[in-house]
Design brief:
By secondary structure, this protein is α+β, with helices and mostly antiparallel strands. It has one domain. It is 25% helix and 26% strand. It has 2 helices and 5 strands; from the N terminus they run ββαβαββ. The chain has helices at 18-28, 56-65; strands at 2-6, 11-15, 49-54, 72-74, 77-79. Strands 2-1-3-5-4 form a 5-stranded mixed sheet. The protein is globular and about 35 Å long. The two termini are 17 Å apart.
Length: 84
């Protein structure tokens, strides 16, 4: 699974592919999504929009509750804070 995330804010799209996640995000955002390259845990700034792998648990929580959800990013993957 993949997620389009605005760092420090919300998750705007999820999908089984990068393209699917971006298309899903475009439904919720004004205009086309501009994706910043996500290189490492420290290479982004608050407000950057990135697409990266996400855990199944996070994707399921977003599908159920929406994108205003707590998440963490480790090793270029987003996951729920409760996941280790």
């Amino acid at each position: 699974m993949y997620a389009v995330i605005q760092i420090g804010y919300a998750v705007y799209g999820i999908g089984s592919t990068i393209t699917e996640a971006i298309n899903n995000a475009n439904e919720w955002m004004d205009g086309d999504v501009e994706i910043s390259e996500f290189i490492s845990n420290n290479s982004h700034a608050v407000g950057d929009i990135v697409v990266l792998r996400c855990s199944e648990a996070l994707a399921n929580a977003i599908a159920e509750k929406g994108g205003d959800i707590a998440y963490e990013i480790t090793c270029k993957e987003a996951h729920l804070p409760s996941e280790e």
